[in-house]
Amino acid sequence: MECKKGHRRAFDPHFSKKTFSKQFLNIEWGYALKIVHAHAWQKWHLVRDDPAYKLQAGQEEQEPGIIPQELLDSLQSTIDDLPSAKAYGKRQGSESE
């Protein structure tokens, strides 16, 4: 993984990618948010001593995967207003022969 300053770090393979991609089908949205939150803060713990990743004034370190119920409640109406998930078919010719 590259840090903001371009330094290379040796991470656990679970944290070595720049992005976190996961399918959240058939699980409650709040649970999915907790999984992503946990991943982000666990990854931050690996670089927290790097000056490029220091928290700004007023920011507090969070417990990975712990999201206050009040925040989840405040997001519920936004989640309810989202359109249904769209299913995409496989592109023709994308399978190897």
Commentary on this structure:
The protein is mainly α. It has a domain of 32 residues. Helices cover 32% and strands 0% of the residues. The chain has two helices and no strands. The longest helix has 19 residues. It is flat and about 45 Å long. The model has no long low-confidence stretch (mean pLDDT 81).
Keywords, please?
single chain, 97 residues, mainly alpha
Give the helix/strand layout.
Blueprint: H1 29-47, H2 69-80
**Termini separation (Å)?**
34 Å
| Helix-strand category | mainly alpha
Order of helices and strands: HH
- Rg of Cα set: 18 Å
Oligomeric organization of the protein chains: single chain
Q: Count helical runs.
A: 2
Gist?
This protein has 97 residues and is an all-alpha fold. 32% of the residues lie in helices and 0% in strands.
